[in-house]
Amino acid sequence: MNTGDDVTLAGLRVCPDLDSILYALAGVNDAERGWGRADEAERAAEEMTAWGVGWPWFTLGDRDLGACITRSHWLAEGVGLAEVVRRLASRWDLGVALLPMSEQPIETHVHTAEQGRMHFQEWWVRHRAGLRAERFELDGIGAATPAPGVLAAIADADAVLVAPSNPVVSIGPILAVPGIREALVATAAPVVGLSPIVGGRVVRGMADACLEAIGVDTDAAAVAQHYGAELLDGWLVDTADAGAAGRLTAEGIPTIARPLLFTSVEETAAIARDALALAQR
Amino acid sequence: MNTGDDVTLAGLRVCPDLDSILYALAGVNDAERGWGRADEAERAAEEMTAWGVGWPWFTLGDRDLGACITRSHWLAEGVGLAEVVRRLASRWDLGVALLPMSEQPIETHVHTAEQGRMHFQEWWVRHRAGLRAERFELDGIGAATPAPGVLAAIADADAVLVAPSNPVVSIGPILAVPGIREALVATAAPVVGLSPIVGGRVVRGMADACLEAIGVDTDAAAVAQHYGAELLDGWLVDTADAGAAGRLTAEGIPTIARPLLFTSVEETAAIARDALALAQR
């Protein structure tokens, strides 16, 4: 899991991607709002804002803060992030192991044309990616190592699926941890990705603003080429992008087209099944 | 203000006495429950408890946690506790300056007959002072100094009122900070105390269990004698204890009796006026 959008706020370690995945798998997420916990309120954040502490545009719900306090406490005790995630997840029967990409703090910063350098969350949440991103910097990435268990999970996998997440700020940081991309290239497991771009548009979020900053077209084929034939053993695009399938396959990335827009767990599972089927080919 | 019942919980610095006084003066306290903020919920604490972090019998409300996060953040930045209190209080127009007794962490521990040594809060909140206290220890008191402004406030005061708070674990720690008792003895300002004991019973809380541990009777005169004629220039007892007034006055503690049981702000103000009048004599 990506930790590149983590941030320390009012002394608390906030891990938006980790927690979003955990909450969703546990079924306690706020599906309507798209982030945080269900049955939420913001009493603590209201107080912090009144005292000018934290980011008023990045309010965390009270349940969410309970997780941040717990995590920060364990980290301060010297517990590694992988073990922290394991403990947080152990409350629920998830059926999967969640691994952070690294235990070292890595924080994405954005250089904007209008206001210079800022934390990714400031650009993303406060400015809704509305300032022009010139480039991204992953502070701490050079000294980072994969978290315990990550390389073994890649080496021992039957298949690796690359989720249709933001290729630049979600998948990008994971691949940038020294050793992880190399492990994905080296593993015997097939690596199959799902396009986050459908018909030249991002399905969700503001990935186009990120892709533009790194000079990659907002296009299903361009994202596959960005990951590279060396990494990918397969690629799923939407039927709207079926035209790219033949070309990518010829370039060494076997590609199939099928509907990728999903709203239900059943549809998502069907897509995952097709991705695994492509991996077995 | 007493900081002797402070505790660090899940990495957050909790200051129950400081916050109770702040909330009450700001009018945002939960008067019915007797502690914490009004309009409260415990979403964050529920999460922490589910992860086994913190004390399940010492749940903090979400608004309360907002204050604890804010304080802990400022303390971690190197801000002194006196300045932290000033900032927390600056949100409201209190009309008074609040000063912690010391900026050094001081934590009261209780030696119990049944279960040995424990933090004061565990004895007080978890066991409702039901274990027999053999003695109290103020960890950190030896190295503590009065917080900035405390000695000047005592020296420059027109009068000093000693509140009818717990003589052992609320007033006691303040007097135990090296230099504070000496300053109260030395100041030109009259020092007048109010008895927390009415008719041989504690008005509120479980001060009797604390007094017993230090060998002081639960008695209005005994508490005055415990503070001592050197410290006190006056003492207010309830009419139920009028019999002690002559004796204490003869011992060098001018004492008056008047009703001390109050439920309204007006009654409290009238008592304070009588205390100040005694100070002026």
Provide structural commentary.
Two copies of one chain form a homodimer. The first copy, chain A, has 281 residues and is an alpha/beta fold. The first copy, chain A, has three domains: 7-89, Helicase, Ruva Protein, domain 3; 107-143, no CATH class; 150-279, CofD-like domains (Rossmann fold, 3-Layer(aba) Sandwich). Helices cover 39% and strands 15% of the residues of chain A. In chain A, strand 10 (234-237), helix 11 and strand 11 (255-257) form a beta-alpha-beta unit. The mean pLDDT of chain A is 96.
User: Could you say what the CATH topology of the largest domain in chain A is called?
Assistant: Rossmann fold
Q: What order do the strands of the largest sheet of chain A run in, or round the barrel if closed?
A: 6-7-10-11
Q: Number of DSSP strands of chain A?
A: 11
Distance between the termini of chain A: 26 Å
Structural classification of chain A: alpha/beta
Overall pLDDT confidence of chain A: 96
The percent range for helix content of chain A is 25-40%
Count of the domains of chain A: 3
Report the biggest beta sheet of chain A as strand number plus sense, adding barrel if it closes.
4 strands, parallel
Can you tell me the CATH class of the largest domain in chain A? Alpha Beta
Instruction: Specify the number of helices of chain A.
Output: 12
What Rg of chain A do the Cα atoms give? 19 Å
Strand content of chain A: 5-15%
Low-confidence stretches of chain A: none
CATH architecture of the largest domain in chain A: 3-Layer(aba) Sandwich
Q: How would the global form of chain A be characterised? A: globular
Oligomer: homodimer
Write the CATH homologous superfamily of the largest domain in chain A.
CofD-like domains
SSE string of chain A, helices as H and strands as E: EEHHHHEEHEHEHHEEEHHEHEH
Interface with most residues = A-B, 30 and 30 residues
Pfam families (chains A, B): CofD (PF01933)
Organism (chains A, B): Arenivirga flava
Keywords (chains A, B): Magnesium, Transferase
Protein name (chains A, B): 2-phospho-L-lactate transferase
